[in-house]
Amino acid sequence: MPATIRLQRENFDPGAEAAALSRGRTDVGAVVTFTGICRGAEDGAPIAALTLEHYPGMAEAEIVRHVEEAGKRWPLLGVTVIHRYGRIEPGENIVLVVTASSHRDAAFAAAEFLMDYLKTRAPFWKQVESASGRTWVEAKAADDVAADRWAKPPGREAAE
Amino acid sequence: MPATIRLQRENFDPGAEAAALSRGRTDVGAVVTFTGICRGAEDGAPIAALTLEHYPGMAEAEIVRHVEEAGKRWPLLGVTVIHRYGRIEPGENIVLVVTASSHRDAAFAAAEFLMDYLKTRAPFWKQVESASGRTWVEAKAADDVAADRWAKPPGREAAE
Amino acid sequence: MSQLKLVYFAWVRERVGKAEEEVVPPASVATVADLVRWLGARGEEYAHAFENPKVIRAAIDKRHVRPEAAISGAREIAFFPPMTGG
Amino acid sequence: MSQLKLVYFAWVRERVGKAEEEVVPPASVATVADLVRWLGARGEEYAHAFENPKVIRAAIDKRHVRPEAAISGAREIAFFPPMTGG
What we know:
CATH class of chain C: Alpha Beta
Number of domains of chain C: 1
Strand content of chain A: 35-45%
Oligomer: heterotetramer
Helix content of chain A: 25-40%
Radius of gyration of chain C: 12 Å
CATH class of chain A: Alpha Beta
Number of strands of chain C: 5
CATH topology of chain A: Aldehyde Oxidoreductase, domain 3
Distance between the termini of chain A: 25 Å
Strand order of the largest sheet of chain A: 1-6-8-2
CATH architecture of chain A: Alpha-Beta Complex
Strand content of chain C: 15-25%
CATH superfamily of chain C: Beta-grasp domain
Structural class of chain C: alpha+beta
Largest interface: A-B, 36 and 36 residues
Order of helices and strands of chain A: EHEEEEHEEEHEEH
Helix content of chain C: 25-40%
CATH topology of chain C: Ubiquitin-like (UB roll)
Number of domains of chain A: 1
Number of strands of chain A: 10
Order of helices and strands of chain C: EHEHHEEE
């Protein structure tokens, strides 16, 4: 399965990335694209920017591992994951997940699986920059619940 | 909620349609794009093209109704649905659903809901053109099952 | 009963041999299911199109309806196979 | 015990006041939880960073581990808050 995984400071073009997964082939019947965008407010208060810190090396490895896991769980024909780091202003893209499959159920499920895992297991941390200073975003319990729905019986990985 | 619904013969650009839903605003945090593409084989046999027939007037009305229903069920900030009709060759786009929301769960759920309903309730019929002639695609029981998971208690609409 | 516009799609259209027509069913035809039975008796092509009423879907004035739906007041009734869009 | 590279991220890094360092913990430090306790006793900034071990996540050689994981053989151990990517 063709997989593209990139961590980068630069913005990306979701449409171009999605188009690349089906170009020149006729086995892809469904492409699901998730784009995560920096909002202008966090918990109702306006923000100036987000700064994303990451753990180089581990972030790539975690994403690769989860893309491989997705490829085992669903009949995917291609996956692209791009995650930005550094300073990101409201309206800018943060993260992209694209999944391609013959049928829509696999493409949807794999895209949701990857997003749930990126939120809770990929080593990235968001800091909010606002009029009142800089604060680290707190992890949301709802994200853990979302990730837990994909859990398999324990024993497969040390921290799962 | 801004909603764009188009039935057309012409191809469309999924990336441009998705970008339009978040451009110039900072409340959108998640955009999910589903693109349905004509595959080169149906049940293992190569095909030359699909021809999509639709019921003009009713197709638009059904899609509008389901987009409105999605807007009631989830806090959406924008929806785009484009469905092509006429002759479509392998590798070409057939259908597009884009949903925008503050958070990913609503965007994913609404996109899946709309696709499940388009498959089973929107008056479109696919005819396959292949070496052995033309045949109508049969409805899949799996699609009915997928659509049924969104059903609310009966009594809301005559045929639900 | 007044005049009624019928429209057909996909293989129902192909079997009937036309995309639409105007009909005036007798007063005894009260529901969509009655109309399917009445149409099925109109000739070979109709008998073929409506031979399995279970796979025929119907819409009255562009809204899905069940076979037991009353047709009184309808302007346009459509018949078609299960949908395969998306 | 041999030399160990520690790396810190987000507010753990800010509280400790550095992004990484090399340490040589005593032989009694066998697990990640032991290491957190040992680090917490190294000074005010460490005590602050590790004051609530429940919210500290750890990775050994770039893989997530639980507090009870053994650290023997580790080259790099990372400490950080719950992740907020995506």
